[in-house]
Write a structure and sequence with these properties.
By secondary structure, the chain is of the alpha/beta class. The chain folds into 2 domains: 162 residues, NAD(P)-binding Rossmann-like Domain (Rossmann fold, 3-Layer(aba) Sandwich), CATH 3.40.50.720; 175 residues, Dihydrodipicolinate Reductase, domain 2 (2-Layer Sandwich), CATH 3.30.360. Helices cover 32% and strands 26% of the residues. The strands form 3 sheets. Strands 3-2-1-4-5-6-15 form a 7-stranded parallel sheet, with helices on both faces. It has a 6-stranded mixed sheet with strand order 8-11-12-7-13-14. The longest helix is centred in the middle third of the chain and has 14 residues. The radius of gyration is 20 Å and the shape is globular. Its EC number is 1.17.1.8. It comes from Desulfovibrio intestinalis.
């Protein structure tokens, strides 16, 4: 099989790694899209920091047309964190019959937060014979790592996870979604108040596609599905993170005053019919000097089991997971297929096309 042909949708911070990894895994970029006028017209080599590749970043409004013409093997979508913000690129891929994989955090398991849109994408992708899915850091470090450890345990009562990351590494959309830069009153109004509602109201928002899930909301759904658990209830609580002195944010283009939100902590608690509780927390904020990423999980049962990863290179790990997942995306059945239904992530030592089923 010839080398895989890949499109890149979103040419910001993450694409610097995802596009380089595509080339270094024996595939090639054949098209690139963005909504930022400052990026349009650039050769992707200038974004990657290497020689020109002969691929010019085009206006994202042309994506559907170009994808239909080029028919790449897959499209990498590295833009926003909510599925509703990705409706246009994902539907463009589905309409064009092009497989799409995204690092959008909600996309890892969107059926429990945006079911109507997930079904809409799923139905169109099935009609055109392509696959759509979400992956990224959470696929491994909040998902398959945890379920692999669970496979070594006799009983499990509770799974507790805690992960932190620097919003400076991911772009302005993610930073704003975490409330970074807001005063505490605005944080309460724009972020936290969404969770101070009755369960019936939350369900209504989910059905209407207006719910704002924290990243762990979808991860808990993924974990429950992978482990074969039946969810009976799920809640989330978002609280602001602050710092005692001002912090400069290059991503936001501002200095965050002391006492303002630098980001947030979101705790999601899931109860299951099988009696296993999943409690996971993600902390996304503008880091103060000396703070580093962490990923800590404890599985309580027989025997208690803990994994602690200090200073994971979250950006690079996210993009490497994205690229390593491309063969699984292509090999999957048409529709919206979450990665809990795919094989465990694998390291690709050979060119990506080697792993595609002939």
């Amino acid at each position: 099989m010839s080398k895989l042909r890949i499109a890149q949708y979103g040419c910001g911070k993450m694409s610097r790694y995802s596009m380089r990894y595509v080339y270094e895994k024996g595939a090639e970029i054949v098209a690139a899209f963005d909504v930022n006028p400052a990026v349009m017209g650039q050769d992707i080599g200038s974004i990657m920091g290497c020689e020109n590749k002969g691929v010019i970043v085009q206006d994202a409004s042309q994506a559907c047309k170009v994808l239909a013409e080029l028919k790449p093997d897959a499209c990498l979508v590295t833009t926003m964190s909510l599925l509703r913000d990705l409706k246009e690129p994902l539907m463009a891929c589905a309409r064009s019959g092009v497989n799409a994989i995204t690092i959008c955090e909600e996309a890892i398991y969107p059926i429990n937060s945006s079911p109507a849109l997930t079904r809409e994408i799923d139905e169109l992708a099935k009609k055109t014979g392509c696959t759509i899915c979400g992956t990224g850091y959470q696929d491994v470090f909040w998902g398959n790592l945890i379920t692999t450890l669970a496979g070594a345990m006799h009983t499990i009562r509770k799974i507790r996870g805690r992960s932190s990351y620097n919003v400076e590494d991911y772009g302005i959309a993610l930073a704003k979604a975490h409330g970074a830069g807001l005063d505490l009153e605005a944080f309460e109004k724009d972020i936290a108040s969404a969770d101070n509602i009755p369960e019936s109201e939350r369900k209504a928002l989910i059905e209407k596609g207006e719910f704002l899930p924290s990243y762990m909301w979808n991860v808990n759904g993924w974990l429950a599905a992978r482990l074969g658990l039946t969810v009976t209830s799920q809640t989330q609580k978002c609280v602001p993170m602050t710092h005692s002195t001002e912090l400069k944010s290059d991503t936001l283009g501002m200095t965050i005053p002391a006492g303002r939100a630098t980001g947030m902590s979101a705790v999601v608690t899931t109860e299951t019919q099988e009696g296993i509780t999943i409690e996971s927390e993600c902390i996304g904020k503008v880091y103060a000097p000396g703070e580093v990423d962490r990923n800590d999980w404890t599985l309580m049962g027989e025997p208690d089991t803990q994994v602690v990863i200090t200073k994971p290179s979250t950006v690079e790990l996210t993009c490497a997971t994205l690229v390593n997942r491309i063969p699984d995306l292509i090999n999957a059945a048409p529709g919206y297929v979450t990665t809990d239904q795919m094989p465990v992530n694998s390291y690709r030592v050979k060119p990506l096309d080697y792993y595609v089923k002939k």
